[in-house]
Design brief:
This protein is of the alpha/beta class. 49% of the residues lie in helices and 20% in strands. This is 3-dehydroquinate synthase domain-containing protein.
């Protein structure tokens, strides 16, 4: 299947539901020198599969760190040093085949380097797929400290189920992204997820592919807002003592939930938050904050971070409202309510 995705004046051709070699063979320019940016884990898993898809091209691989935020200044510098051995008179195809950091890094590089290069993405997961649909490509010093920014979308974006479905340990993280899409932009989409994935067993058995087209439509309308929801609460974990006890994806997930709880402090939504949290627990999400986390310090970091970047408020679940500055009382109430519900379920 094919979809055309557009954000402002940027367009992406999405291909999914067919083998990678077939999808790429239909559009691949044979004379292009292919540079594939990836993480070590995906290189180890899929080297032969991806190599076959470009069997008629000159191919080189650049291996990024496995960390989620590998789109940092040091990685950018190292890639530019790596590219110094290649001629600028050739035409290149930069392909992101990795996690979200690889997508961000590749999109930024194609816009700013002096090489004549196109930019494509082969998704390794749903989260990398939807990351590619957000036109904001950033380079950071730390996950909470963005230094450089460019707007870019890949010319082509490929989703091969045989690659995505092998990331069994990442299904909760992929579902997390779909849940956020529904929470922010479409309540009926969220209800569809609830009905399709009522248990952890059902989650492992059922493909996400039926939700791709609708999620793409929602991102076409609201991609930057969906991507940014929860990020202030997420980044505050990086600045709080013992925040390292949470993985990068757990920081993202808890950031999303805590912004949602803060959001519910501001309006009179009828959303059944306790039932929602019970569903998340049944699916296997770890919901508790680390006991060693200094909640007071975390609160201070949230308030500090949002002074320059106010947070988006949902007027109701699935309905985007305005931005608003958080105050100490509402954030405290949100954290306390969150901890109370976690203790009850």
């Amino acid at each position: 299947m094919q979809l055309t995705y557009q954000r402002q004046d940027l367009t992406t051709q999405i291909t999914y539901g067919q083998p990678l070699t077939k999808s790429i063979g239909e559009v691949l320019p044979p004379a292009r020198h292919v540079i594939i940016l990836t993480n070590q884990r995906y290189y180890d898993q899929f080297f032969e599969k991806v190599q076959r898809a470009f069997s008629h091209n000159n191919i080189d691989w650049y291996i990024c760190r496995n960390q989620l935020y590998c789109n940092h200044l040091e990685e950018l510098t190292e890639f530019l040093q790596y590219m110094s051995r290649f001629s600028r008179t050739n035409e290149y195809l930069f392909i992101a085949f990795g996690n979200e950091g690889v997508i961000q890094l590749t999109g930024f590089l194609q816009q700013t380097s002096l090489f004549a290069a196109k930019y494509w993405v082969i998704a390794t997961s749903l989260r990398s797929f939807f990351c590619a649909l957000s036109e904001d490509c950033t380079i950071c010093k730390e996950p909470y400290n963005e230094l450089l920014h460019q707007k870019n979308l890949p010319e082509h974006l490929f989703l091969d189920q045989s690659i995505v479905q092998k990331q069994v340990d990442g299904k909760l993280v992929d579902l997390q992204l779909l849940i956020k899409t529904g929470l922010v932009s479409d309540y009926s989409f969220l209800q569809g997820l609830f009905k399709s994935f009522p248990t952890k067993k059902q989650l492992q058995r059922t493909s996400f592919i039926a939700f791709v087209e609708k999620a793409v439509q929602l991102h076409q309308q609201h991609a930057p807002i969906i991507a940014s929801y929860g990020t202030i609460f997420e980044k505050a974990f990086y600045l709080t003592e013992n925040g390292h006890l949470l993985s990068a994806h757990m920081k993202q997930f808890l950031g999303l939930l805590l912004q949602l709880f803060w959001n519910l402090e501001l309006n009179n939504s009828t959303f059944q938050i306790k039932n929602f949290m019970l569903w998340l627990k049944k699916l296997g999400y770890p919901l508790e904050l680390p006991r060693a986390l200094l909640v007071g310090e975390y609160l201070e970091q949230v308030l500090s971070l949002q002074e320059e970047d106010h947070m988006r408020v949902l007027s109701d679940i699935g309905k985007i409202g305005n931005t608003q500055e958080a105050d100490e009382k509402t954030v405290i109430n949100a954290i306390e309510r969150y901890q109370k519900i976690i203790s009850e379920i």
